[in-house]
Write a structure and sequence with these properties.
Number of domains: 1
Low-confidence stretches: none
Strand content: over 45%
Number of helices: 1
Order of helices and strands: EEEEHEEEEEEE
Helix content: under 10%
Number of strands: 11
Structural class: mainly beta
């Protein structure tokens, strides 16, 4: 069980800050290589939109010295707006390489997060031209000596190939006017685990 905080960085009154998006998450390891997981987006709830994500992660390659573990996550994200009586669904696919280190198996990771857009129209009835949103990411998961806890940070480059200069939200990006840079912090408590 855990939670996370953060989002794309925006220009707020002249200062770059991450959008304060929050979520609570749960996961269950079916075996040492397969985990199912889900999350509830609590910031969306504050604005009257129910939003959840769900999926499964499978580790298909084991780390060998400097060659990393490799995993893939297949899932989805669903949002429901009662005021608009509208449901949106976005399939997701993540692929990550990660390197465990130390006695507690903390790890660094790099990978890509992909959102697939099924809707043909965007806000204000504009045509949807992007069917896939490609987001490179990197992060670190730290497991302290006390055991049973994890702390994580993630840096995400959200759609770094798309011009965001005319976006309604004033996104900040290390790529200038392309995409947005996201920053996330999180915490997990491993129930029933000694690691």
């Amino acid at each position: 069980m855990g939670g996370n905080f953060g989002g794309p960085v925006i220009d707020f009154a002249g200062a770059p800050i991450p959008v304060p998006l929050t979520a609570v998450e749960v996961g269950y390891g079916l075996d040492s290589n397969l985990t199912v997981h889900g999350g509830l987006h609590t910031t969306s709830l504050l604005f009257g939109v129910g939003q959840i994500d769900f999926g499964a992660t499978y580790k298909f390659l084991e780390q060998k010295k400097y060659f990393p573990n490799l995993s893939a996550s297949l899932g989805g994200n669903v949002a429901y707006s009662p005021s608009e009586k509208a449901v949106e669904f976005w399939p997701t696919l993540d692929v990550n390489a990660y390197w465990n280190y130390g006695k507690r198996d903390s790890y660094f990771y790099v990978g890509v997060n992909n959102y697939f857009v099924l809707q043909s129209r965007m806000a204000f009835d504009q045509p949807q031209n992007q069917r896939m949103i490609f987001n490179p990411q990197m992060g670190h998961v730290f497991k302290p000596k006390s055991g049973g806890y994890q702390f994580f940070t993630e840096l995400k480059f959200i759609a770094p190939y798309l011009d965001s200069d005319k976006a309604f939200v004033p996104y900040k990006s290390i790529f200038g006017t392309n995409g947005a840079t996201g920053f996330y912090l999180g915490f997990r408590k491993l129930l029933g685990s000694k690691k």
